[in-house]
Design a protein that fits this description.
Blueprint lengths: L1 H11 L3 E2 L1 H25 L5 H6 L2 H29 L7 H10 L4 H10 L1 H27 L3 H22 L7 H4 L13 H6 L5 E2 L13 H12 L4 H22 L3 H26 L3 H15 L6
Parallel strand pairs: 1-2
Helix pairs in contact: 1-4, 2-4, 4-7, 4-8, 7-11, 7-12, 8-11, 11-12, 11-13
Length: 310
């Protein structure tokens, strides 16, 4: 559905995606699918059953299949995020700054304090950058360890988060705290340089190999931090480490990602809401529908009180 929206929107607005980026994604997806086919074919050969079971061919092939889906989804969602920015809706930066100040959060002061403490800066930078590596490592860990339900739940939560992120951010766009407060340090305002040229219509060609995270509200890094921690809740050895790393990543989001405090709060609330909604949906799936329950009771009653033949 997202890909269909992308193709239609690109065609109607005379925009395009650079072919080299599409080719790169297709090759990666093709390699993953080929590995899935080969692993599943080898696993079904009787003489190799013991070896493939020990090497977890089934789990590895399932994980590779999920990764191919992840790559397709993130590519199409990235294109859609750029198209949503091009709508050029009114910016809400002033409102976000007023909200932060009402809570006593001074973004420039916090940024300068972190910058003046090099060790704090390095720790927060590593925590923020860990989001990408966790996005690869966590589904791999869940898949290879055989946590099939947790793995599928991880991807469902990830996709729901990304979709709701675009739904909310499109009518309420914000540049970035880096841009608003005119921060010129390396890897700050330059990381959202596509935002302005998308809004003024200058950027007409997208490159999947160089896509930027242009969504400010809510913070996707914050949502990922909650999702990563929740997904590892059943693996005790990693759950405590995930809490530490992802709590630090949430703390790093304002200064390392150029987010307002409101973005972080919105990301926390939305991620908790999505997780709770999925939990409720899963519980309802396991409950027997009332009509089926009544039919079962009536069937048992008829069998129990049916007259016996002489």
């Amino acid at each position: 559905m997202i890909l269909l929206i992308d193709v239609t929107w690109l065609h109607l607005t005379n925009r395009s995606v650079r072919w080299t980026g599409i080719e790169y994604v297709c090759k990666a997806v093709g390699a993953l699918i080929c590995s899935v086919v080969v692993l599943r074919a080898v696993r079904r050969i009787p003489r190799y059953e013991r070896i493939t079971a020990k090497l977890r061919y089934a789990e590895v092939s399932d994980t590779a299949a999920w990764f191919s889906l992840l790559l397709c989804f993130m590519s199409s969602a990235s294109i859609l995020s750029y198209l949503c920015v091009s709508i050029n809706a009114p910016l809400v930066d002033n409102s976000l700054v007023r909200f932060d100040r009402a809570l006593g959060f001074d973004w420039p002061g916090v940024y300068l304090w972190v910058k003046s403490h090099s060790q704090v800066q390095q720790i927060l930078a590593l925590a923020y950058e860990s989001g990408f590596w966790q996005l690869l490592a966590i589904p791999a860990i869940l898949g290879i360890s055989g946590c099939h339900e947790d793995l599928s739940e991880f991807f469902v939560l990830l996709m729901l988060s990304a979709i709701l992120l675009l739904i909310i951010s499109t009518p309420f766009p914000a540049t970035s705290a880096f841009v608003y407060f005119k921060v010129a340090d390396p890897n700050t305002a330059s990381t959202v340089s596509d935002f302005a040229i998308l809004r003024d219509g200058t950027m007409r060609i997208f490159d999947l190999r160089n896509m930027q995270g242009l969504v400010s509200i809510p913070s996707f890094h914050t949502m990922l931090a909650v999702l990563f921690t929740y997904s590892l809740r059943r693996i005790r050895l990693l759950f405590g480490l995930a809490i530490v790393i992802n709590t630090t990543m949430i703390v790093s989001t304002p200064t390392q990602g150029g987010h307002y405090l409101f973005d972080v709060i919105a990301g926390l609330l939305l991620s908790v809401l999505i997780i709770q909604a999925l939990r409720v949906a899963n519980r309802q799936r396991t409950v027997v529908p009332p009509t089926k329950f009544r039919e079962a009771i009536e069937c048992v009653t008829r069998e129990q009180f049916k007259p016996t033949e002489k």
